[in-house]
Design brief:
The chain is mainly α. Helices cover about 70% and strands about 0% of the residues. It contains 14 helices and 2 strands. Helix 1 packs across helix 14, helix 4 packs antiparallel against helix 8 and helix 8 packs antiparallel against helix 9.
């Protein structure tokens, strides 16, 4: 037996298991089995772009970039700061989000609707008032529209830059159309269905955006004080640098962030490509040796 190959396989399985448990949580294996083995119609067929984008390692960078971008809406950030427990239980929040994405992207239509119903019920309870006295409700269609647009744009940008098999323009238009199915179910009114309308919607929200103290604190927590063991801090720093670089050009400055200067931009992007390749390698089950 090739001990080198066995060692590589063991390392790969260990890394993949660690990443999966962080992202999917204790219920991850059971949820994965239910999502992929339960018979029945799905919202999206196997050839749909949403399945490719949401199943790619680029989502690690896109997800962090989405959180930073979403924080720029004061009402959204107030809701997160007061109700999500992102500081006390950041992994739990990540796991709930990834589970929702998995069920709606790959699960049966029935399970996808159950996931949506659960999130809508939570949104109805998330109500409050900002420090400036402005009321918010997470179920507000206008607020949901911002969260959706920021998330989809971030996932799309990440896949375009770091995806294993990037789509062409028509493919990304189809991806935006796929995500509109989920957004409408969550309560977004007339979600964008192509990239052009997505960019127009993001531009329409620009006058509402600003970096509140809560947004700046969230950025510091996510980028400088992540809840990770020290050995994981270096790769996370590469992920964070690429998440910042992925933001729309106007966004980093609002959060007090500085993207890498032009001479270093290529190095940052190369590090992101290497990181996503490593994650993809770790999370793809290795071929089993013949018995």
């Amino acid at each position: 037996m090739d001990t080198s190959s066995a060692g590589d396989r063991t390392l790969r399985e260990r890394l993949g298991s660690t990443l999966f448990s962080r992202v999917a949580g204790p219920s991850g294996p059971a949820n994965r089995a239910r999502i992929h083995t339960t018979p029945g119609p799905r919202w999206f067929g196997p050839d749909r772009p949403i399945r490719t984008v949401h199943g790619d390692a680029s989502m690690f960078i896109g997800g962090l970039s989405a959180l930073l971008l979403q924080s720029l809406h004061p009402l959204a950030m107030s809701a997160v700061a007061a109700h999500s427990g992102f500081r006390g239980d950041p992994w739990g929040r990540l796991q709930r989000t990834s589970t929702f994405l998995a069920f709606t992207t790959y699960g049966t239509a029935q399970d996808a609707q159950l996931a949506v119903d659960g999130v809508r019920a939570v949104h109805e309870r998330v109500r409050g008032t900002t420090a400036e006295g402005e009321p918010y409700c997470a179920a507000d269609p206008h607020l949901l529209g911002w969260v959706h647009a920021a998330e989809v744009d971030s996932f799309l940008r990440a896949h375009e830059r770091f995806g294993a098999h990037p789509w062409d323009a028509a493919g990304y238009d189809a991806y935006v159309a796929d995500t509109a199915r989920v957004a409408a179910a969550l309560g977004v009114v007339d979600p964008p269905r192509d990239r052009s309308s997505l960019q127009a919607l993001l531009a329409a929200y620009r006058p509402e955006l600003r970096a509140t103290p809560e947004a700046l604190e969230a950025a510091r927590f996510l980028l400088r004080h992540p809840p990770l063991p020290w050995p994981a801090r270096a790769p996370y720093a590469l992920l964070a640098a690429n998440a910042i670089a992925l933001l729309p050009p106007w966004a980093p400055g609002m959060l007090g962030l500085r993207p890498a200067p032009a001479p270093m931009d290529t190095c940052v992007r190369l590090s992101g490509q290497a990181l996503t390749r490593s994650i993809r390698w770790a999370m793809t089950p290795p071929p089993r040796p013949p018995t």
